[in-house]
Amino acid sequence: MDENPNRSPHDLGGVSKFMCEAVDMEPHALNAFDRQVDALSGVLRAKQLMTVDEMRRGIEAIPEDQYLRLSYYRKWIRSLADNLLRKGIITEAELRAALEAQ
Amino acid sequence: MNFAPGDAVIVKNDWPEAHGPVHIRTPHYLRGHKGRVVRRLGAFRNPEDLAFARPAATRALYHVAFPMRELWPEGGETDDVVVEIYEHWLERP
What we know:
A: Cyclin A, domain 1; about 50% helix; B: mainly beta; SH3 type barrels; 2 helices
């Protein structure tokens, strides 16, 4: 199948350049970061601050080089931050200060 | 548009991705391909709008079957690929 220039980076089905890569079928244990991101996502949905569709939009907006490199939950946290900033629930200054305090 | 099981359909050969940020649940490899409606799954608010927190109309969602060989040459001869597709992505041939 020819590569379509309009394909979004996340829309990977049937793309021949990925066909020779073995699929990692091993189960992966969740680490503390993964669990925190999952919990945060659950809280935001329960409080109706973010829908699953907005979450997916944020993941799909990650540029291709990062999309293919980031772990599953790293993509989630990028989308959570993007959605919270868009809605004004947090500010860039607050996010930067929180990251620097780590 | 309403479809019944067995109806022949074509997935719109449309590329909203080319015109800015979107959330599209119709896989790229089906655009412009012919399929057959298997069943109606219900009606849901359009995720393309929900993804941007916009007001979202309710759209019917269908299971549509595509002969695998027509999508990928290495596909099984009698196999189908069955995908959930919203009504506004389907046209009559």
